[in-house]
Design a protein that fits this description.
Number of strands: 24
Length: about 300
C-alpha cells in the first residue's frame, strides 16, 4: 500500500509542471500505517533526476534521508518510510540534471500529522428542548482543533439528521430547522459527534442526548366535587385537576373579597385533589384557574 504525493520540480530555465493527484499534502495516521509512502517527480523534457532529499525531524538517526533515483526516465517515483520521521514538516527537494546543468527544485513540503484530534465536548440544554430551543441550538459542541471539521448526527424516533461544522476552537450551537425537527420526531434524541483534523485523522466520537418536545402541554381539566363545599371538603379537595404527567401545575383559588391562594403540584396524568387554604380565602364564592407547563 502506498500514497502518492506530487513534487513540484522547477528547474532554473526549464519548468517541469506537476499536477496534484489528490491535493493531499499530509501524511496522516492511515498513511503512516502503510509500508511505504511514494513521491512522484516529473522532470521537464530533457531533464533527468539524480536523487531526492527528504528532510525532517528524525525519530532516530540522521535528519536527512537521500533516495537515489534512476537516470533517464520521463517520470520517477521514490518511496520512503514516513515512520522514520517525527510529526512535523518534511521538506522534499530533487536534484535535477537539466541538459547538463545541475539544479535543485523548489522545496515541496509534506506535513506529517499522526495525532488524532480531541473529541468534541457537548453542552446540552437543561430539561427537554422546545422547538425554539432546538432550532436555536439545543446542543452546543466544541472541537479544540481550530482546523478540524465536526460531524454531528442527531437520531430520533422518526429519523436522523446530520450537520457538519468547521472547527473554531470555540463553542458552537448546532442549529436545526423546522424540517429537521419533523424528521427527528418528538422524544429522546441521541447525538454523536466526530471530529476530523486537517490531515484527515478522525477523533474519538462523543455522544449525548436530549428530549425534544415540540408540543405545548394540554390545558388542565377540572372537576368540582360539589358546588357548595363544606370546610372539610375544601380542605380535602373540593376541586380535582388532571394535567400532563411531569408538567408543573399552578392552581389559583380566588375570593374577590379576601384574596388568592396558589397551590403548585406536578401533573401525573390522572386526577389529583387540590386542597384550599380556608384561612386566607374565607367564606364566599371561590373561582379557580389553573395552568400547566410541560418539562420543555
Amino acid at each position: 500500500i502506498s500514497n502518492s504525493y506530487p513534487l513540484n520540480n522547477i528547474a532554473l530555465a526549464n519548468v517541469s509542471s506537476v499536477t496534484s493527484l489528490d491535493g493531499d499534502t499530509y501524511v496522516n495516521i492511515a498513511d503512516a500505517a502503510a509500508a511505504l509512502d511514494t513521491l512522484l517527480v516529473l522532470p521537464a523534457p530533457g531533464d533527468t533526476i539524480n536523487f531526492v532529499t527528504i528532510s525532517g525531524t528524525p525519530l532516530a538517526g540522521g535528519a536527512t534521508i537521500f533516495v537515489t533515483a534512476g537516470v533517464g526516465a520521463a517520470a520517477n517515483t521514490f518511496t520512503f518510510d514516513a515512520n522514520l520521521f517525527a510529526d512535523g514538516n518534511l521538506s522534499v527537494v530533487a536534484e535535477v540534471n537539466s541538459q547538463g546543468t545541475i539544479v535543485t527544485t523548489n522545496p515541496f513540503t509534506l506535513i506529517k500529522d499522526t495525532l488524532a484530534p480531541n473529541a468534541a465536548a457537548f453542552i446540552v440544554v437543561a430539561g427537554a428542548a422546545t422547538s425554539a430551543e432546538a432550532i436555536a441550538g439545543a446542543i452546543t459542541v466544541n472541537a479544540c482543533d481550530a482546523l478540524s471539521s465536526i460531524t454531528v448526527t442527531f437520531t430520533g424516533v422518526a429519523g436522523s439528521v446530520t450537520k457538519t461544522l468547521a472547527g473554531t476552537a470555540a463553542a458552537q450551537a448546532v442549529t436545526l430547522t423546522q424540517a429537521d425537527l419533523a424528521t427527528l420526531g418528538d422524544g429522546n434524541i441521541a447525538v454523536s459527534a466526530t471530529t476530523t483534523d486537517a490531515a484527515g485523522n478522525p477523533g474519538v466520537s462523543a455522544t449525548t442526548s436530549f428530549v425534544l418536545d415540540t408540543v405545548a402541554a394540554g390545558a388542565p381539566v377540572f372537576a368540582v366535587t360539589t358546588a357548595t363545599a363544606a370546610a372539610a371538603q375544601a380542605i380535602a379537595g373540593a376541586v380535582t385537576v388532571t394535567a400532563e404527567a411531569g408538567s408543573a401545575v399552578s392552581v389559583t383559588f380566588t375570593n374577590a373579597t379576601n384574596g388568592s391562594v396558589t397551590v403548585s403540584l406536578t401533573g401525573t396524568g390522572v386526577a389529583q385533589a387540590v386542597a384550599a387554604d380556608l384561612a386566607t380565602l374565607g367564606q364566599g364564592t371561590i373561582t379557580v384557574s389553573a395552568t400547566a407547563t410541560d418539562v420543555a
